[in-house]
């Protein structure tokens, strides 16, 4: 718990460029690109590009007949960039050099030196702006598919936040049946987004609502409420006034614990006690969880860190009450985030082995779960799968 | 009622290019542009451009140092376009030729022949794509401001639609107190978007939820539920397969009357009868209302057409039950949509005078209301004000 959030955020930011890798490194004889390209599922209505094929290649087509240069950049750091070339019809076209990882990727265009979104795609809030998104069909996409099952709702709420002098927004997933079972009360998971994202991410990019609908329809998880709010109270973009260096967890901790939790307990039919309340988050949201939840163990009984750090036995021993009060510590990563099993920590600290940490907790009698998403990195496919894995473990007793 | 929807849609599409006019025509000595530009309220977090000033001018700044030509186009038809010029720092800048109407305007960029969104702004679904938006501060902006009052929710629901073989999305506004007053039941307004928009428009562009929150906080309207869904069941873009020429109201009528209304009555605490159910819509949504509601007068007791046609005494006399069953016919336009008091009708038909029509209804003992939004056109400021005006008139008895 002795990490600072500023250091953590710096790590997250420097870690994010590794996303959307074209992987694995091209073998000596690269397989031929199969010409079964189809429009990405995240395209705007009726748009034919970008396209994806069965191998995970992405193909772009941008109309800008007078442009000098057009590039598609996947991930924050520019790896996986695809330089487009001008076709005879005046459109700029290109195919990624290699297959992309399964799942969701942010990207943007560079057109004659300017940064724009692909007019073909829907936009998703990431890296502090609304960006283009592309979906590489995953072999396990069924678990977040929109199916003919009973659906919960995603409700936008606006709650007064006296501590920040603002009306703040959150999205609340209520499970199917919530409206019918007027006497039933439900546990609540507070689920945070990553750096540069906002309260829209878990629904839009993560399909958290569909994951829950499908799990509940299959009888695999207890129905519960999920609350997703914005995890920032100041402007944390690098170089901005009040940026990373001055980031302080306290203001958001106040919003979460003193304002949002009471609002949700006051306006939804919750089971309003510690053993029916979880906090989890991805990336920066995981670090926020680790900074907030262990200080409020009479509020939160479950802790989930998704690509957002690990919990060691030292952490537990340094935190009063952790051993007795935390009912589950869930930690997950994408396999591509681990090097020799070790995950990146705050700068200047050695990489830790999250699996070894989890096993040490279990061995010491502390309920702990560890999950690695195969062949994915610091991206939403890791976090969709992590939610799928974590949800059934919550609120079991 | 004898109009065809295809003809109506064609009218709407040809009418839409008149939006976002720079108005009024420049007087002989144009006033100096006042240099009090501030970021538009619809900018992405932290973005300084586009900006607006107190006179209603818009100023754009686009970074694309290698581009040959950059233009900002307001409205579908290109009127109000602003050609940007390259500043010494490599950014493209420009100010609209004149002040724009108060309220919300769609726009997009043309960069070297390609159509892109302004990376500075949020995007809004209009003209069948997600477009940039800019907000010219209105003198009456207070009625849709986010204030410290009790807030209702905007809930995303997914409902099964056997007739279209799909899971369809709607947004449902529930008023403040809906969660607390577990025994209270509420009237419902079904509120449709315009051509090229979708079920997100009334919340995102229209601020329907904030308009209701503020009206309810001031005691000016009865709290009621608003349901907003997508008013298309096929691909109606010009030139597309199954486009305008083949558009048929029947499939959406089935979704609305046979699927959505029963779903809402089954899953929300509604007053599930004719006198507590209204249908209204803007532009094409108004024409859809006029095509659907009068055929289902045991379902809908209130009818609202916002820039979406008028109801004449002939219409009433040709519609069995209208005179006895419709509790209010609300019609509105923006002042700039009327020429000599007359609104454009379907092609080949003379312009009608909606005020005269409304007065003829009232004279014949049919409850009718007519509203004109001052100095606005076929745009969302007209429809925000129309909802503000219409809501207190609904469900009064």
Automatic annotation (TrEMBL), chains A, B:
- Specify the domain of life of the species encoding this protein: Bacteria
Q: Which GO terms describe its molecular function?
A: acyltransferase activity, transferring groups other than amino-acyl groups
A Pfam family (short name) is Esterase
Signal sequence bounds: 1-20
Keywords assigned: Signal
This chain belongs to which protein, by name?
Esterase
Organism (species): Sphingomonas metalli
């Amino acid at each position: 718990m002795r990490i600072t959030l500023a250091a953590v955020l710096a790590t997250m930011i420097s870690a994010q460029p590794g996303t959307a890798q074209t992987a694995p490194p091209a073998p000596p004889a690269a397989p031929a690109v199969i010409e079964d390209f189809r429009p990405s599922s995240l395209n705007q209505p009726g748009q034919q590009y970008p396209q994806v094929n069965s191998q995970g290649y992405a193909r772009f087509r941008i109309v800008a007949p007078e442009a000098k240069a057009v590039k598609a950049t996947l991930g924050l750091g520019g790896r996986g960039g695809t330089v487009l070339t001008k076709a005879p019809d005046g459109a700029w076209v290109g195919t990624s050099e290699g297959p992309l990882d399964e799942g969701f990727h942010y990207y943007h265009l560079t057109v004659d030196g300017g940064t724009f979104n692909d007019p073909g795609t829907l936009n998703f809030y990431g890296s502090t702006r609304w960006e283009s998104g592309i979906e590489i069909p995953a072999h396990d996409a069924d678990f977040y598919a929109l199916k003919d099952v009973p659906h919960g709702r995603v409700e936008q709420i606006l709650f007064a936040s006296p501590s920040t002098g603002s009306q703040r927004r959150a999205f609340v997933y209520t499970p199917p049946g919530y409206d019918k079972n007027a006497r039933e009360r439900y546990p609540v998971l507070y689920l945070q987004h990553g750096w540069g994202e906002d309260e829209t991410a878990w629904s839009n990019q993560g399909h958290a609502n569909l994951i829950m609908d499908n799990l509940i329809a299959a009888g695999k998880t207890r129905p519960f409420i999920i609350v997703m709010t914005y995890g920032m109270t100041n402007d944390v973009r690098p170089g901005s006034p009040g940026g990373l260096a001055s980031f302080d967890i306290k203001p958001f901790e106040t919003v979460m614990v003193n304002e949002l939790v009471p609002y949700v307990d006051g306006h939804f039919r919750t089971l309003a006690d510690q053993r029916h309340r979880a906090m989890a988050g991805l990336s920066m949201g995981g670090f926020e969880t680790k900074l907030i939840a262990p200080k409020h163990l009479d509020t939160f009984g479950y802790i989930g860190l998704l690509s957002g750090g690990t919990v060691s036995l030292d952490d537990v021993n340094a935190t009063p009450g952790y051993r007795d009060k935390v009912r589950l510590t869930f930690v997950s990563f994408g396999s591509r985030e681990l090097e020799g099993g070790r995950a990146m920590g705050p700068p200047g600290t050695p990489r830790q082995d999250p699996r070894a940490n989890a096993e040490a907790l279990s061995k010491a009698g502390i309920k702990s779960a560890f999950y690695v998403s195969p062949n994915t990195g610091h991206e939403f496919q890791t976090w969709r799968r992590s939610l799928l894995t974590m949800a059934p473990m919550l609120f079991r007793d």
